[in-house]
Amino acid sequence: MEEYARVNLANWDERAAAHAASPGYDVERLVSGERELSHVVAFDVPRLGDIAGLDAIHLQCHIGTDTLSLARLGARMTGLDFSPAALEEARRIAAAAGEQIEYVQAELYDAPAALDGRTFDLVFTGVGAICWLPDIARWAHVVRSLLHPGGRLFIREGHPMLWALDEKYGETDGLLVVDYPYFETEAPMVFDEPGTYVPTDAQFTSNRTVNWNHGLGEIVTALIAEGMRITELSEHDSGPWDPLPGMTEEFGDREFRLKERRARVPFTYTLQAVAGP
Question: What pLDDT, on a 0 to 100 scale, did the predictor assign at position 213?
């Protein structure tokens, strides 16, 4: 495992149990009823369409709340993540919900080998996943390797324009300030920050993370280079977390958007692509 992955793995392993216990993931609600979905997947349902009966894999699935939700929509789910602590929580949550989900431990770039060459009808990737990867072209190659001909990629992600903003400025003066790279760079962004992105009283010691941004054009081009046909690219003015505290408002089902002049920046995007023969 490369050094960047080891650093990030320590961070994710330490936070897995806290995430599963946090109201931010709302696990208790999710396992309480057969029709309950995560807020992320609930937003995605109109674009996902009917996935009943599909063989699907959720890449970088973390504690599996979205994986479980896709299973509830009828897909035969496999979840893949590099964190054993996260997968322990994912298996526990699936068991509590009575769903049969296979979970595989592997780093993203090792997924084809870890899955013994299996292919799927649907590859799903959720919010906050690809920023942990240094090379979007390698990611696109993995995605294509995991799809049957005619299979579909579905990704809703944080928009690279949003990832390029520095949230600290908006808290005081309302400005949106571009301070981080928009494009993929060879050198990563390294952060050393306590806490996590959902409410918790837990204290952590592994606080370093290593991230990369990937421009929207880079993502699309990488998929096209793998012979995939883009069928949707929609940008949204909201996201399922609060990325700019003090500047946003919550609405609907745990979506956040700017309180003022929302047309300034997209928060997330949905991209769908179909694998060629």
Answer: 98
User: What is the residue-wise DSSP string for 97-117?
Assistant: HT---EEEE--GGGHHHHTTT
Check: CB of residue 262 under 8 Å from CB of residue 176. no
- The pTM score is 0.95
Residue 253, pLDDT score? 78
Element spanning 59, H or E: strand 55-59
Starting at the edge strand found earlier in the chain, the sheet holding 268-275 runs 102-105, 76-81, 55-59, 120-125, 147-158, 268-275, 228-236
CA nearest 270: which of 24, 43, 57?
43
- The pLDDT assigned to 166 comes to 86
Which CATH number does the domain housing residue 249 bear?
3.40.50.150
CB count, 10 Å around CB of 53?
10
Structural domain boundaries enclosing 173: 3-275
Count the Cβ atoms, other than its own, within 10 Å of residue 178. Answer: 12
pLDDT reported for residue 170: 58
Question: How many structural domains are present in the chain?
Answer: 1
Q: What are the residues facing 104 on neighbouring strands? A: 80
State the pLDDT at residue 138: 98
CA separation for the pair 1, 109 (Å, rounded): 10
Of the candidates 276, 235, 273, the residue with the CA atom closest to the CA atom of residue 123: 273
Residues of the chain with pLDDT under 70: 169-172
Q: Phi and psi for 274 in degrees, rounded to 5?
A: -115, 135
Which candidate, 270, 157, 135, 159, places its Cα nearest to that of 212? 135
Q: b/e string for 185-218 if b means 16 or more Cβ within 10 A?
A: eeebeeeeeeebeeebeeeeeeeebbbbbbbbeb
Identity at 219, one-letter amino acid code: I
What's the token pair of residue 226? 């793998």
